[in-house]
Amino acid sequence: MLHHLTDALVSWGPAGILLLAVLDSSGVPVSGVFDAFLVLIAVERPSIAWLCAGLAVVGSMVGSVILFEAAHRGGRRFMNKAAPEGRAARFRGWFRRYGMVTVFVPALIPVPLPLKLFVISAGAMGTSFTQFFLVMLVARIFRYFGEAWLGVTLKRESAAFLKTHAWIFAAGAAVLFLALYGWILLRERRRRGATPPV
């Protein structure tokens, strides 16, 4: 049933991309890979590629906000019950400092990382909504407009390009994660060093 629903939404063009992006980012297990559909539409109908990329960003943000808010409302109570208070507090502290890196990387690069799990964690850990929204927005703009550009530029060679360079995307995700993590650690160390002793 989900497979037929996905096919129908894709056949709707821009409106289907918008609805599919909302469903995909809100946790509904739609069949297929959303990124491949966006690239395919860019290949088949380049005149609407940029519109579809914009709608993909909008739909993804709507779905992610829905998932984030649902986790924010119910997830914190669950985390407090599931883990001892000390451990839950330590995890919340870690996620507030470094957790958005684990959201940004899979939101930006089309690699098989469990983005929904990180979005739920961000909501449950009490991450600032503004911080979450901006991180997701920047990542999604680069990702979806990049895929539209790929489809318009490479045409039918896009799929082969993505498959051939999949390892590069995975390596890039790992390098980006380590670079951002290291930057956060360095920034915190400098901030502690600049704090005058009491």
Explain this structure.
This protein starts with a helix and ends with a helix. It has one domain (2-194). It is built from nine helices and no strands. Helix 1 (2-11) packs antiparallel against helix 2 (14-25), helix 3 crosses helix 7 and helix 5 packs across helix 6. It is mostly helical and 198 residues long.
Reconstruct the topology from this structure:
Elements: H1 2-11, H2 14-25, H3 34-44, H4 49-82, H5 85-108, H6 115-124, H7 129-154, H8 158-164, H9 166-194
Helix pairs in contact: 1-2, 2-4, 3-4, 3-7, 4-6, 4-7, 5-6, 5-7, 5-9
Terminal Cα separation, in Å?
A: 64 Å
Structural class: mainly alpha
Order of helices and strands: HHHHHHHHH
Number of domain units: 1
The Rg value, from CA coordinates, equals 19 Å
Query: How is the biggest beta sheet arranged?
Result: none
Keywords:
mainly alpha
In short:
This protein has 198 residues and is mainly alpha-helical. The chain has helices at 2-11, 14-25, 34-44, 49-82, 85-108, 115-124, 129-154, 158-164, 166-194. α2 runs parallel beside α4 (49-82), α3 packs antiparallel against α4 (49-82) and α4 (49-82) crosses α6.
